[in-house]
Amino acid sequence: MKSAWGRIRASIFRPAALPQFPAASRIRILLLEDDAAWQHLIATGLEAHRIEVHVAGSVSAALELLAAIGPDAILIDAILPESDGFEACARLIHASRERPIPILMLADSDDDRIIERALDAGASDFFLKSLQWQLLAGRLHSLVDAGRMRDELASRQRRLDRVQGLAQKARASARRARELVDRDLLTDLLDRRGFIAASQARLESIKSDLSHPSVLLLIDIDRFKRINDSLGAEAGDAALREVAARLRHAFRNLPGIILGRIASDEFAVCFPQLRTQAAALRAAQIVMTELHRPMVCGGLECVLSVSVGIAADLPGAVGPDTGIEALLAQAGHALSAAKEAGGNTVQSFESDLEQADRERFDLEASLHGALERGELRLHYQPIIDPRTRLMSGIEALMRWQRADRLLYPDEFIPIAEETGLVFRMGEWAVGEALHQVRRWRNEGLDVGTVSVNIHPRHLEQPELARAVVRAIDETRLPCATLELELTETGVMRDIKRSISSLQGLKDLGVRFALDDFGTGYSSLAYLTQLPIDTLKIDRSFVDKLDADEQAGRQSHAVVRAITALAQALGLSTVAEGVETADQLESLRKLGCDDVQGYLYARPMPANELAQWWKGFASTRTLPIPQFVPS
User: Fold this and answer.
1) Full-model pTM
2) Can you tell me the distance from the alpha carbon of 40 to that of 61, in angstroms, rounded to the nearest whole number?
3) Residues 518, 462, 394, CA angle at the centre, nearest 5°?
4) Alpha carbon separation from 344 to 223, 238, 239 (Å, rounded)
5) Cα 138 from Cα 136, distance rounded (Å)
6) What is the mean pLDDT of residues 509-524?
7) Which of 440, 443, 464, 439 is nearest to 452 (CA)?
8) How many CA atoms lie within 13 A of 175 on its CB side?
9) What is the largest CA-CA distance in the chain?
10) Spelled out in words, what is the top-level CATH class assigned to the domain 369-617?
11) Is it the case that residue 210 has pLDDT exceeding 70?
């Protein structure tokens, strides 16, 4: 019988279908990655695709290997112990300046700002850190082929210069080579660097003519990842080529416009001069119409939807002397707003969008260092057995002490989820909560279980299991001391994967709770297969237990159904958000096992919980007081 670790490893290292590369295409890469697990994963995954991987765990080791092996490409993790991947990228570029080597940056998030930083640091491309070896291998082979093409062009250029010896022809040939380098090989549009250079040159040439505004459209394909995931990379590439062709066709009669593919599924159109801002909106609608027409991808008919951000150098917007970089930034703000609105829409830049984005960017930048600065906190809320008034467990809830402000999860967890920081924060929370339970038990406070909220996708990552095992070993607590809470909606989004991911940790002895139960769309058939221990009844039902008329009757019926279901499946129940004695009495009658809420205590720091418990324990036999929410 396989151990839990064995099952986890088996699920991680399961081989995928591999593409076949010609024998002559074997390439050598230098991998800069400090995590031993990812070193092995990447080396194993890419070796099957005719890629020879040489691993360096630090920048200094990478610099030594660079001279020794002469790699065709370099693969860098954005997060490294001695420096970040962006600094490492710059150092490796400097070290290989005599023979430029393409660099591909890996990161846990595909946030636009991370991609921007990677490109600014000199990276040739960006890839989301995952187990998609076929896609990664294809990207590396494409980068190396493009690099070899550029090397060949450069070699031919040098020979031409020597033979002809004419500076004028040399400059013309260099310009032609530069145009080729600055083009996207897939779509034959300008790449990001080429688009910026061409647009800036065009804007500077008409700077004295302020009669018509310059306008930039930023176009992003909504949910493009689904095409690659469902139909394959070739279908995705076909879709991108078709988008480029349709953009060319749509604006074929407009002189002077500049088209570019500036990111994976992001395109830009620069109109050096338009008559009015309304013309910019019409241009955006043309884009929407052209790209919404059905196209064939991977042998199937697909209909794309796109989001469009507009920036123009109008008074009060960007200003007549603004360069293309600023226009791109403003269009990016507008595009983000369009995506947040659900996509398939057009958004023009407004100054308040920039202010909101600046505030969010500042919060995101600060959150990246919150763990290292020791700013994250755990507050603890008791879970009480209403029959015995004994504390059956506690829930650990994260807080962020940012300067003089204490931030609550809804203010920073969404950002952490988007950037991937939620995984590191979850691992920290598991370790901190278990160590705190050990401290309490050493002081004589018998805490049964501690519940920690975890993002459902975190279960798929081996780092969580490592963090759990490490904390259990260090604290010498039973594995059942830890209960991981996952939202019902998150688990049910990919139920089959959730069952597999849960089982590995379940085999170690970890408990699981399904949070906010009753608000999602649980399938009872799948619920019986989930290795969970507790159903947490959402507070929206508890709030209405003491309501009058129909709302109260409906909430009683829902809670009664949940407790009956839990009893039939051998699960315990916890009601959240209990604030009144009437709610508590209803929950006791309905058979709820445990409760938590302001009736007993708010979430509090660890030192306050110990004092609270001493006071509460001394009055356990007294009648339960009425609670008036503050």
Assistant:
1) 0.50
2) 17
3) 45
4) 10, 21, 17
5) 5
6) 77
7) 464
8) 7
9) 102
10) alpha beta
11) no
